[in-house]
Amino acid sequence: MKLFVCAVLSFALYSTVAISSPAPDDSVTVVQVPHMNRASSHLQYVHALLELSLESTQQEFGEFEIRYHSTETLPERQLKGLEVGEQFSVTVSHAKERWNNAAIRVPFPLVRGLASYRLFFTTPNILPALNKVSSLKDFYQFSFGQGVGWSTSRFLQDKHFRIVYGSRYEGLFVMLTANRFDLLMRSPYELTGEHVNLSQQYPSLTYSTRTAMLTYLPMYFYVSDKQPELAARIEKGLKTAFKAGQLDALYEKYFHSSLALIHSPELRVFWINNTNITTQQYLADKPYLLPSLIKQLEPHFVSHPQH
Question: Signal peptide span per the entry (predicted)?
Fold first, then answer.
């Protein structure tokens, strides 16, 4: 029998999802998850996947308890928490070399490569120029807002684009609408969710449905190397859920509008190489990616292997 328990603990401020156990002991795997403040629903999907992966492997690996922290932790601090192995067990990130070296990357692309489509929030005065982009070179007329530690910063830097950094997620929207930079790069699911949730607060916030960059940008679970068995358990659970079709139902629930956006016939995409990724990594992920994305990615990895 499954029991869900939510509690706020004054010393740690986290909520708990427990399975058949009133209190953790040596036979219960405790999974501590950091909190990120985002105005889109993809993290709900990620949390649902985590729970599904643990539930489907319970017979083999035993009971588990997920503790979701309720105070926000920035990505770089999440990584430090994974390295120590006491504060956090698992978190989620796009692929980054430093993360691959500091934690265990679970080799399953959580959103099936959907974040590879890079769309942009902008302001009404910039939108006409963005809609007229006809090559990657045309993007050099714009400045890009980026968060500190974002994986997308690396390939923008590699191509020598102008980048303006913001230290906080919410502050980037303030900076964009104050014309501190021109474009704020987002995944399709971030774009749709954030526009619904933030457009009233930022009435000048707009975006293009016609222009996007395309790269390969997978999102993974990263697990503390203090818990290798947990990493193996999550991987097995995810791949089992994918083969059983359980992941498809969750995916459609959370990403229906995002899929409509990327499949729009008016959307034009312009390739930019992600130097965080190797061809070997792409090929390992390929069985789990969106078929429509594979068609667009394949020429770049087959004709020009990335090392």
Answer: 1-20
